[in-house]
Amino acid sequence: xxxxxxxxxxxxxxxxxxxxxxxxxxxxxxxxxxxxxxxxxxxxxxxxxxxxxxxxxxxxxxxxxxxxxxxxxxxxxxxxxxxxxxxxxxxxxxxxxxxxxxxxxxxxxxxxxxxxxxxxxxxxxxxxxxxxxxxxxxxxxxxxxxxxxxxxxxxxxxxxxxxxxxxxxxxxxxxxxxxxxxxxxxxxxxxxxxxxxxxxxxxxxxxxxxxxxxxxxxxxxxxxxxxxxxxxxxxxxxxxxxxxxxxxxxxxxxxxxxxxxxxxxxxxxxxxxxxxxxxxxxxxxxxxxxxxxxxxxxxxxxxxxxxxxxxxxxx
Length: 315
Description:
Layout: H1 2-29, H2 34-39, H3 45-55, H4 61-73, H5 87-122, H6 127-141, H7 144-158, H8 176-210, H9 213-220, H10 225-262, H11 268-277, H12 281-309
Helix pairs in contact: 1-12, 5-6, 5-8, 5-10, 5-12, 6-8, 7-8, 7-10, 8-10, 10-11, 10-12, 11-12
C-alpha cells in the first residue's frame, strides 16, 4: 500500500507542474498591464516602468515563471498587489469558508446521490425509479447559479426564511445555528448537479452488481432483501461509485466560484473573481494552484480508498 501511495504522489508532480504552467500562461495572455491597474490615476510611464521593475514584471516571461515557481516551492507565493499581504495568508484565510461550503455540499450530494441511486436500482422501472430519474434529470439540467438566484428570490426575499447572502449575520451571535442558516441555500444549490450525476451512476453500478451470481446466492440463502441491497450489493458497487465521488469533488470545488459570487460567500471563489478583475496576478495564480493541489490530493485519497475496497487496482 505504501508503494502504491508513493507512486500516486509521484505521478501528481507533473500534473501540478502542468497546472502551474497553464495558470501562468493564461494570466500572461490577459490584456492589460498590472502596474497600470495598480497605480490607477498615477499610472505615468515613469511610475509604470518603476513598478514593473519592482515587481519583476520587466523580465522575460520565462524568467518570471521560473522565479515564481522557485519561490512557490519554498512556500513563498508572493504578495498580493492590491491587498499588500502574503498570497498564502489570504488564500488560507479564505480557504476555511470554501472548505465549509464545498465540504457540506460534497457530503450532501454523496449521501443523497448514493441513496437515490440505490433506491432507484432496487425499484427498477417502478414508480420510485421513475420519480427519482425525473428529479435527477431536472436537477442536472438547472445551472447552479440560476438555482441559487431563484432560491434567494423565494426563500430570502419572498418567504424571508433564510438570509440572502454572507456566511455570518451582520448583527447577532456567530453560532452554529447562524452558520447553518447562511449555509443552507448555497450548499444545496451547489450540490444539486453533483447529486444528480452521482445518483445516475450509482443506479448503473447497482444494477450491474444486482445481476451478478453472488447476489442470487445471497437471496437463495434467505438473506433479507434489505441486507442484499445495502450490505452486499452496495459494498460491491462502491468500487465503481468512489471514482465518481472524486470527480464530483472537483466539480463542487470549482462550482463554488459561481455560488460564492451569487451568495457573497467569503471564500476562495469570490476572492479569485475579485483578483481577476483587479489584475492581481500573484493572488490568482497562488489561489488556483492551491485549489488544484487540493483536488489532486483528494483524488489520491479516493484512489487509495478504491484500492482498499478492490486490491486488484494496486496491480
